[in-house]
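Hi L., both proteins are below.
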Amino acid sequence: MRFDSRIHVAHVAHPTWRTFSRRLFERGRAFAPMRMREHPLPAWRRWLLAALCPGLPVVLLGRVVRHAVRHRVPYRRALLAATPLVLVGYGWWSAGELRGYTDRPTPRG
């Protein structure tokens, strides 16, 4: 993935906190089975990924912060102020991903 500082994105939807959290959880939950279908994993690796999910919010935030620092993006102060909410959002994603790794696989078809 590559970041291009010339691209500006605007988001106009204003979901409630509950809708936002549920959406992140469900997307994280959908990501794990998709990943396992595309790249079949042995059971031990699936459980290892599940065990590492609680650390995922810090890893994801670290990637965003690293990009902001390296490229001196103009929203660094806003990112600092939003860090607690970003961590909560990433927490919902990782909880969903954890659930996706630990759910029983559903038959395809």
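That was the first. Here is the second:
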Amino acid sequence: MRRDLATQDLRVPDQAVTEEFADDEPPRIVVRAEHIAGEWTNWARVAHAKHEFTIDFVRIDPFARRGIVVARVAGSANFVDELIRTLGVVWHDWVRNAMPPEVDEGDGGQPPEAP
């Protein structure tokens, strides 16, 4: 393996992926070294055309009224739909673990339907 690449060695749970793969073998995900830390974003802008969506992830400067796009992601409408559902599953799991046990979401603890 090249030194400037890192691989994801933890398998993403099936209910938290946007697409299943027929051969049951998850793809090998490679993250270049300069992207390992990720980007911080505190604002997003979404635009769409007939067949695609574009999401700008922006870091707004807390001391000045300006921002910089730290990532721009474009995808098909189908991908965006799957992403929304996948985020719902992951969000539900996070809330269930982050909230005190006495907090009831009113759904009996059931996660939203997985993609």
